[in-house]
Amino acid sequence: FLFRLFPLREHGMNWHARPLTCQEIEAFKKSSDVMQRFERAYQLMLRFYGITLTNQKTGELKRAENWAERFQNLNRFSHNNLRITRILKCLGEMGYEDYQVQLVKFFLTETLVKETLPNVKRSALDYFLFTVRSKRKRRELVYYAWQHFKPQSSFVWAPQDKLLKYR
């Protein structure tokens, strides 16, 4: 189900699913119908995770009304982290890089700042962060993560000396 909604150019957990080609991705991007379905699928998954898309242009997100219940699900079942990684990669493939950045920042905020998703923290740092295609945006997110990571001296996702000089 998820591979059909969020196809990738790589094999996922289902080895029967055929990876997308670059030509297929370009054809999808040119079809407004396909892209509208993709956006609806993204919003469906966000709702499942207790998240609401508040701005379709920027990809800005906030907690949904049922966030507490849905976050319990995210904390309890780690297989969701693989799904989120897949969604993030697909967002990048389909040209929704701003959505990628917003979703990663949302999870960094919930794990490191608000501490509502402690069991998602490692995936957010190890995987979600590194799906972001824009090198500049990825660096900004790594810096944001470092700013909120406790203790900062244990942050291993970038060299401390570079983080201290950043900006």
Automatic annotation (TrEMBL):
**A Pfam family the protein falls into:** OGFr_N
Alphabetically, the GO molecular function entries are:
opioid growth factor receptor activity
Q: Which residues form a coiled coil?
A: none
Which InterPro entries does the record cross-reference, listed alphabetically?
OGF_rcpt, OGFr
Q: Which residues form the Opioid growth factor receptor (OGFr) conserved domain?
A: 5-163
Gene Ontology CC annotations of this record: membrane
State the similarity comment: Belongs to the opioid growth factor receptor family.
Q: What is this protein called?
A: OGFR factor
Gene source species: Eudromia elegans
